[in-house]
From TrEMBL:
SUPFAM superfamilies, per the entry: RmlC-like cupins
Subcellular location: Secreted, Extracellular space, Apoplast
Protein name (Swiss-Prot/TrEMBL): Germin-like protein
Cupin type-1 domain mapped to chain residues: 22-170
Gene Ontology MF, one: manganese ion binding
Residues that coordinate or bind oxalate: 67, 72, 77
Matches recorded under InterPro entries: Cupin_1 (IPR006045), Germin (IPR001929), Germin_Mn-BS (IPR019780), RmlC-like_jellyroll (IPR014710), RmlC_Cupin_sf (IPR011051)
CDD domains: cupin_OxOx (cd02241)
Protein task: May interact with bacterial adhesins thereby protecting the reproductive tissues from microbial attack. Has no oxalate oxidase activity.
Family, per entry: Belongs to the germin family.
GO annotation, biological process: plasmodesmata-mediated intercellular transport; regulation of root development
Amino acid sequence: MCRSNQWFACKSNISPDDFFFAGLAKPGLTNNTFGATVTLATVQQIKGVNTLGVSMARVDYAPGGINPPHTHPRATEIVFVLEGELVVGFITTENKLFSKTIKKGEIFTFPRGLIHFQINNGKVPAAALAAFNSQLPGTQRVANALFASSPPVDDVVLSKSFQIGTQEVETIKSKFAPKK
Protein backbone atom coordinates (compact mmCIF):
# COMPACT_ATOMS: atom_id res chain seq x y z
CA MET A 1 0.00 0.00 0.00
CA CYS A 2 2.87 2.40 0.75
CA ARG A 3 6.29 3.01 -0.73
CA SER A 4 8.77 4.51 1.73
CA ASN A 5 10.13 7.93 0.87
CA GLN A 6 13.06 9.91 2.21
CA TRP A 7 11.05 11.42 5.10
CA PHE A 8 8.55 8.84 6.29
CA ALA A 9 8.88 5.08 6.48
CA CYS A 10 5.99 2.78 5.71
CA LYS A 11 4.39 0.92 8.59
CA SER A 12 4.13 -2.85 8.49
CA ASN A 13 1.16 -3.20 10.84
CA ILE A 14 -1.41 -0.64 9.75
CA SER A 15 -4.82 -0.05 11.27
CA PRO A 16 -7.85 2.13 10.58
CA ASP A 17 -6.46 4.67 13.05
CA ASP A 18 -3.57 5.34 10.65
CA PHE A 19 -6.14 6.82 8.24
CA PHE A 20 -8.18 8.78 10.81
CA PHE A 21 -7.82 12.26 12.32
CA ALA A 22 -10.45 14.20 14.29
CA GLY A 23 -8.35 17.35 14.67
CA LEU A 24 -10.26 19.45 12.13
CA ALA A 25 -13.64 18.95 13.79
CA LYS A 26 -13.36 21.82 16.26
CA PRO A 27 -12.33 25.45 15.76
CA GLY A 28 -8.81 26.43 16.78
CA LEU A 29 -8.13 29.26 19.22
CA THR A 30 -7.68 32.65 17.57
CA ASN A 31 -6.52 34.70 20.57
CA ASN A 32 -3.00 35.19 19.18
CA THR A 33 -1.00 37.85 17.32
CA PHE A 34 -2.55 37.06 13.94
CA GLY A 35 -6.09 36.32 15.12
CA ALA A 36 -5.96 33.05 13.20
CA THR A 37 -4.97 29.44 13.79
CA VAL A 38 -4.02 26.77 11.27
CA THR A 39 -4.69 23.16 12.26
CA LEU A 40 -2.81 20.78 9.97
CA ALA A 41 -3.85 17.33 8.78
CA THR A 42 -0.69 16.15 6.98
CA VAL A 43 1.35 12.95 7.03
CA GLN A 44 2.62 14.09 10.41
CA GLN A 45 -0.89 13.73 11.86
CA ILE A 46 -2.30 11.00 9.55
CA LYS A 47 0.32 8.32 8.84
CA GLY A 48 -1.96 6.71 6.24
CA VAL A 49 -1.53 9.59 3.74
CA ASN A 50 2.17 8.75 3.35
CA THR A 51 2.93 8.77 -0.42
CA LEU A 52 -0.71 9.54 -1.32
CA GLY A 53 -0.05 13.19 -2.18
CA VAL A 54 -2.91 14.74 -0.19
CA SER A 55 -3.38 16.69 3.02
CA MET A 56 -5.69 19.28 4.55
CA ALA A 57 -5.82 22.08 7.07
CA ARG A 58 -8.47 24.02 8.92
CA VAL A 59 -7.96 27.74 9.37
CA ASP A 60 -9.99 29.66 11.94
CA TYR A 61 -10.06 33.47 11.92
CA ALA A 62 -11.22 35.99 14.49
CA PRO A 63 -12.72 39.19 13.06
CA GLY A 64 -9.71 40.95 11.52
CA GLY A 65 -7.65 37.75 11.71
CA ILE A 66 -5.06 37.03 9.03
CA ASN A 67 -3.17 34.07 7.67
CA PRO A 68 -0.18 36.26 6.72
CA PRO A 69 1.66 36.12 3.39
CA HIS A 70 3.23 32.69 3.01
CA THR A 71 4.01 30.04 0.44
CA HIS A 72 3.75 26.25 0.15
CA PRO A 73 6.84 25.09 -1.74
CA ARG A 74 5.50 21.58 -2.35
CA ALA A 75 1.78 22.06 -3.01
CA THR A 76 -1.07 23.84 -4.69
CA GLU A 77 -3.78 24.84 -2.20
CA ILE A 78 -7.53 25.11 -2.62
CA VAL A 79 -9.55 26.83 0.13
CA PHE A 80 -13.24 26.21 0.89
CA VAL A 81 -14.98 28.72 3.20
CA LEU A 82 -16.94 26.97 5.95
CA GLU A 83 -18.19 30.11 7.73
CA GLY A 84 -17.88 33.85 7.23
CA GLU A 85 -16.10 35.70 4.47
CA LEU A 86 -12.43 36.04 3.53
CA VAL A 87 -10.39 38.31 1.32
CA VAL A 88 -7.88 36.01 -0.35
CA GLY A 89 -5.13 36.59 -2.85
CA PHE A 90 -1.88 35.46 -4.40
CA ILE A 91 0.91 37.27 -6.21
CA THR A 92 2.33 35.91 -9.47
CA THR A 93 6.01 35.82 -10.37
CA GLU A 94 5.27 38.95 -12.45
CA ASN A 95 4.11 40.68 -9.22
CA LYS A 96 0.46 40.72 -10.27
CA LEU A 97 -2.06 40.37 -7.43
CA PHE A 98 -5.06 38.09 -7.94
CA SER A 99 -7.49 38.78 -5.10
CA LYS A 100 -11.15 38.11 -4.38
CA THR A 101 -13.64 38.11 -1.52
CA ILE A 102 -15.02 34.62 -1.01
CA LYS A 103 -17.97 33.61 1.14
CA LYS A 104 -19.38 30.48 2.77
CA GLY A 105 -19.47 27.64 0.25
CA GLU A 106 -17.03 29.26 -2.20
CA ILE A 107 -13.49 28.22 -3.10
CA PHE A 108 -10.26 29.84 -4.27
CA THR A 109 -7.03 28.23 -5.46
CA PHE A 110 -3.42 29.25 -4.78
CA PRO A 111 -0.83 27.88 -7.24
CA ARG A 112 2.14 26.02 -5.77
CA GLY A 113 4.99 28.15 -4.51
CA LEU A 114 3.27 31.54 -4.93
CA ILE A 115 2.96 33.97 -2.02
CA HIS A 116 -0.63 34.14 -0.82
CA PHE A 117 -2.77 35.27 2.13
CA GLN A 118 -6.26 35.23 3.64
CA ILE A 119 -7.83 37.83 5.91
CA ASN A 120 -11.18 38.03 7.66
CA ASN A 121 -12.35 41.62 7.18
CA GLY A 122 -15.74 40.74 8.61
CA LYS A 123 -17.23 41.38 12.04
CA VAL A 124 -17.81 37.68 12.79
CA PRO A 125 -15.43 34.71 12.98
CA ALA A 126 -14.62 32.82 9.78
CA ALA A 127 -13.34 29.32 9.05
CA ALA A 128 -11.99 27.56 5.98
CA LEU A 129 -10.78 24.13 4.95
CA ALA A 130 -7.67 23.97 2.79
CA ALA A 131 -6.73 20.96 0.67
CA PHE A 132 -3.24 20.35 -0.72
CA ASN A 133 -1.88 18.05 -3.41
CA SER A 134 0.99 17.00 -1.18
CA GLN A 135 1.23 14.91 1.97
CA LEU A 136 3.55 17.58 3.40
CA PRO A 137 3.03 20.95 1.64
CA GLY A 138 5.43 22.92 3.83
CA THR A 139 4.79 26.52 4.82
CA GLN A 140 7.13 29.47 4.75
CA ARG A 141 5.86 32.78 6.12
CA VAL A 142 7.46 35.65 4.21
CA ALA A 143 8.04 37.97 7.18
CA ASN A 144 9.48 35.21 9.37
CA ALA A 145 11.81 34.07 6.59
CA LEU A 146 13.21 37.57 6.19
CA PHE A 147 13.17 38.93 9.73
CA ALA A 148 13.46 35.88 12.00
CA SER A 149 15.88 33.55 10.19
CA SER A 150 18.80 31.93 11.97
CA PRO A 151 21.42 33.10 11.37
CA PRO A 152 19.77 36.44 10.62
CA VAL A 153 19.66 38.01 7.17
CA ASP A 154 22.20 40.84 7.16
CA ASP A 155 20.63 44.23 7.91
CA VAL A 156 22.16 45.77 4.79
CA VAL A 157 20.32 43.21 2.62
CA LEU A 158 17.00 44.05 4.30
CA SER A 159 17.49 47.83 4.42
CA LYS A 160 18.48 47.98 0.73
CA SER A 161 15.72 45.58 -0.34
CA PHE A 162 12.99 47.50 1.48
CA GLN A 163 14.59 50.93 1.11
CA ILE A 164 14.46 51.56 4.84
CA GLY A 165 17.10 52.41 7.44
CA THR A 166 18.84 49.88 9.63
CA GLN A 167 16.98 51.23 12.68
CA GLU A 168 13.67 50.33 11.01
CA VAL A 169 15.07 46.87 10.19
CA GLU A 170 15.98 46.35 13.85
CA THR A 171 12.49 47.46 14.91
CA ILE A 172 10.88 44.96 12.53
CA LYS A 173 13.23 42.16 13.60
CA SER A 174 12.36 42.80 17.25
CA LYS A 175 8.69 42.13 16.48
CA PHE A 176 9.64 38.64 15.24
CA ALA A 177 12.15 37.83 17.98
CA PRO A 178 11.25 34.80 20.11
CA LYS A 179 9.37 35.70 23.28
CA LYS A 180 11.44 35.28 26.46
